[in-house]
Specification:
By secondary structure, the protein is of the alpha/beta class. The protein folds into 2 domains: 6-126, PGBD-like superfamily/PGBD (Muramoyl-pentapeptide Carboxypeptidase, domain 1, Orthogonal Bundle), CATH 1.10.101.10; 132-325, Aminopeptidase (3-Layer(aba) Sandwich). The protein is built from 13 helices and 7 strands. The chain has helices spanning 6-15, 26-35, 55-66, 80-93, 103-113, 121-132, 151-166, 183-192, 229-245, 259-263, 279-285, 288-306, 320-325; strands at residues 141-146, 170-173, 197-204, 214-221, 226-227, 250-256, 268-275. A hairpin with a 4-residue loop joins β4 and β5 (226-227). α7 packs across α12 and α9 packs antiparallel against α12. The longest helix is centred in the C-terminal third of the chain and has 19 residues, at 288-306. The relative contact order is 0.12.
């Protein structure tokens, strides 16, 4: 790692969907370690914490997914769901069913990958699961993550929570007004909640006051050729709703591999509601009426995520009262 130049580190970070800093922090160091493993370099299995990470595991998950075996998200982590998919594959080819991906399993996988392809079953599964949940919010579990300890972000989360509860959703906040759990604690909380959707609310900052605007992020990796279908759709919806209802600059939607997006089992989106280092953005967020508009934009985007295409409306036109009048609160 010490042999890498700053430009090489930046290029690596950009390719991996990490924060581009030019120096090797803990997250980048872990990504560099994961990148050194190619499928076949080692035997893969579920081990005691921490679980095995690596590009070889992501390659295994991608190949199994292409063949129709359900690994869940291609995240490069060898967990119980990946082990179960390996067992299913081993059973299908008559190999020893032990959940370990050793030389024999890898050889069988490589041979069959050339002749068997299931298209994109993970996409079909995600879309089918979303559609099967129906349009009503009454049976949805939403986790709101007011990141850090910023009180403006927490206030947006509370305003959003109230509107979702009124529509019948089950809502959990990862923190209260005064506590500040770690990121790993927030991820664990969301995973234990069996959430349908996890929304992380944030404010950004920069070294000067020129940076401004709102942006959204979902799990995606160009390196591994995967992304969260539901996460990408919701990120796009909420980005458009916020920018249509406010004068925040549109800083677009981006795929990232941050731990919160990667390790949270539910589709997860991070929303940056502006820059506190920019007087204009901070002034907007400091107004209660503006935070109300943001909360309404979030709720409408959540509802649009679950509406069938023929029932959807143009961006910026739906109101929460419309949802109640249409009987979407069940």
């Amino acid at each position: 790692m010490s042999d890498l130049t700053e430009s090489e580190i930046r290029s690596f970070q950009q390719a991996r969907g990490l924060d581009v800093t030019g120096f090797v922090d803990a997250v980048t160091a872990r990504a560099l370690e994961e990148a050194r493993w190619k499928l076949g370099d080692r035997s893969l299995y579920v081990q005691e914490h921490p679980l095995m990470h690596g590009d070889d595991i992501a390659a295994l998950q991608a190949r199994l997914t292409e063949m129709g075996f359900d690994c869940g998200r291609v995240d490069g982590i060898y967990g119980p769901r990946t082990e179960l998919a390996v067992k299913d594959f081993q059973k299908s080819v008559g190999a020893t069913i032990d959940g370990k991906c050793g030389p024999a399993t890898i050889i069988a996988l490589i041979r069959l990958t050339k002749i068997v392809s299931g298209g994109v079953p993970s996409t079909l599964r995600q879309n089918a699961m979303q559609q099967s949940r129906g349009p009503a919010l009454a049976n949805k579990v939403i986790v709101l993550n007011p990141d850090g300890d910023d009180q403006l972000v927490y206030d947006v989360a509370v305003r959003t929570e109230g509107r979702l509860l009124a529509l019948g959703a089950s809502v959990f906040l990862t923190r209260g007004a005064t506590n500040n759990p770690t990121e790993s604690e927030r991820i664990l909380f969301s995973n234990k909640s069996n959430a349908d959707l996890m929304i992380s609310l944030n404010v950004d900052s920069y070294i000067n006051d020129r940076a401004h605007g709102a942006a959204t992020y979902f799990y995606g990796s160009d390196t591994h050729g995967v992304h969260s279908i539901v996460g990408e759709r919701f990120a796009s919806l909420v980005q458009r709703e916020i920018c249509a209802r406010t004068d925040l600059t549109n800083c677009r939607t981006h795929a990232k591999t941050w731990d919160l997006l990667r390790m949270t089992m539910a589709p997860t989106v991070r929303i940056d509601l502006g820059y506190v280092s920019n007087p204009g953005d901070l002034g907007r967020l400091s107004r209660p009426d503006f935070r109300d508009v943001i909360a309404e934009a979030l709720v409408i985007a959540i509802q649009r995520l679950y509406l069938a295409a023929e029932d959807d409306a143009k961006t910026g036109t739906l109101r929460i009262s419309d949802l109640r009048n249409a009987g979407i609160r069940r």
